[in-house]
Amino acid sequence: MKQTILVTGASSGFGLLIANKLKQRGYTVIGTSRNPEKYQDKLPFKLLELDISDDESILSFHKRLFEHIHQLDVLINNAGFYLSGLAEETLIEQGKLQLETNFWGTVKLTNELLPYFRKQRFGKIITVGSIMGLISLPGGAYYAASKHALEGYFKALRFELKEFNVNVSMIEPMGFKTNIVTNALVAENEISDYNVYRKKLNHYTTDLFKNAPEPTPVIETLMKLVDEKNPKFNHPVGKGASVIHALQHFAYKTFENSIIKNINKFKN
Ligand SMILES: NC(=O)c1ccc[n+]([C@@H]2O[C@H](COP(=O)([O-])OP(=O)(O)OC[C@H]3O[C@@H](n4cnc5c(N)ncnc54)[C@H](OP(=O)(O)O)[C@@H]3O)[C@@H](O)[C@H]2O)c1
User: Fold this and answer.
1) Which of the residues 29, 67, 85, 90 has the least number of beta carbons within 10 Å of its own beta carbon?
2) Which of 27, 82, 142, 143 is catalytic?
3) Spatial distance between the Cα atoms of 103 and 121, rounded to a whole number of angstroms
4) pTM for this prediction
5) Domains present along the chain, CATH in parentheses
6) How are the residues of the chain apportioned to helix, strand and coil, as percentages rounded to the nearest 5?
7) What does the pLDDT look like over 138-151, one tens digit per residue?
8) pLDDT, tens digit (0-9, with 9 covering 90-100), for 5-37
9) Pocket residue to mutate for ligand 1, from 50, 78, 98, most atoms within 8 A of Cβ
């Protein structure tokens, strides 16, 4: 039997593309959006209402989800947005919303579904991070913080869920053409000292996204993660992304392996 897959943020961009692709390939797909009624008519899969920045919405989504499916094989945590702006020019409230959505929202939804995966003793949790979860760039301090936080959280979770045969992985795309820029929240607290730097940075970012490639490699990688039996944790995608990751990975892995060895020395 084909697997059942939940894709958050399936009304646009990566989420919409992967949900469509999975549906075409015969998977049972449930997608989510904050406004499903706006998109449902045009979609070949069921779209349920979910705002990951809202606790109530996560709870009521969880209740409704299992009215539509009997088994969940894969959770694709994709929903998120980009908060664009210089760190000091970003209101703390805006920064909080970025973390409440990209980090806390993703973690809370995952936690809500973890008891299910644990009891089932199989499943996959795939989270869409970003290359900004491995490096930080100007103009995206809070976004980078949210994506770094996801890397740290899921990197630990992957060990804990191995016990229950649940695979945890992440994908770290570079910039790709979606609606992320149009949907971005922009820092609201302009400080004139930054005028020149902000202008230069805006030119750079506009240029970068204007020339961003189509998201095909991201969708292919997500597809591979769904199909592979036991995928590894990190999956950087885009020009230069794997080099950044490989260089970081070597130093990190050596340190991490020694800690895991020490934990395993203890008897239960
Ligand atoms: N595009 C890139 O270059 C790029 C690079 C690296 C990582 N990413 C990551 O890829 C993921 C998808 O982004 P995208 O590029 O496809 O952008 P997008 O086209 O703007 O799509 C974002 C999706 O997230 C959903 N969403 C936003 N806020 C939400 C919330 N509070 N609760 C629930 N759903 C919410 C939106 O659904 P509704 O508005 O319908 O609710 C939409 O379906 C994000 O996590 C983003 O950080 C993107």
Assistant:
1) 67
2) 143
3) 25
4) 0.94
5) 4-240 (3.40.50.720)
6) 55, 15, 30
7) 999 999 999 999 99
8) 999 999 999 999 999 999 999 999 999 999 999
9) 78
